[in-house]
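User: Please predict the structure of the protein below. I'd like the answer in structure-token form so I can feed it into my own downstream comparison script.

Assistant: Understood. Taking the following sequence of 213 residues as input:
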Amino acid sequence: MPIYGPLSSPAAATLSEYGALLQPLLTPPRWIHSLGVMQMMGDLAPLYGLDPASACVAGLLHDIAKDRSAAEQIQLATELRLVLNDPSEALPVYLHGVVGAALLEQQVGYTDAAVLEAIAAHSYNRQLSPPSERLGWCLRVADVLAPVREWTGMWRLHDLAYAGDLATAAILLSRWVSELYCGWGLPVHPLLAALERQLCAPLADQPDFFARW
């Protein structure tokens, strides 16, 4: 199920070329969201020592598979020979990141391993390795800070990220994403549950820390 032919030179492609590839694959709200994440990744890149071009590509393309139906994502996962490690990974909320990264690598010809890892892991069913950790966490943060509507806690997370405190932002985000998925009646992926336990354990006696003010 090819989504688009490979770019003639993925390594030298411009954001405009990637945008032309991406826009037909997304709904208008998702396209606006992706542009917002790209812009925010451009803002965060100098704060965290990231390559601005790679950060912007990650932001723009992170949801390339998000608007595919659940059945299409599962079919793509099969065609792309992806291994699903937990039953929850068949759900689009988790699957779209890994499918998107595989599409970019196998069909578009994109090769930046750090960007591919960040895109795969932004849906919380893959771990981030140390070389990709800052890029991956910036993408996770930017993803929730560029929504189509505002949410409680958004500006607290925004201020932390833009002040250079990615570590605290990651702690809050891991807890809030777990709470959100539970509220939606979705299973919390084992890797997300383990991540939350790891990051939040030192704050077990500080429940107010997670307040969304």
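That's the full token string. The longest helix spans residues 166-183.
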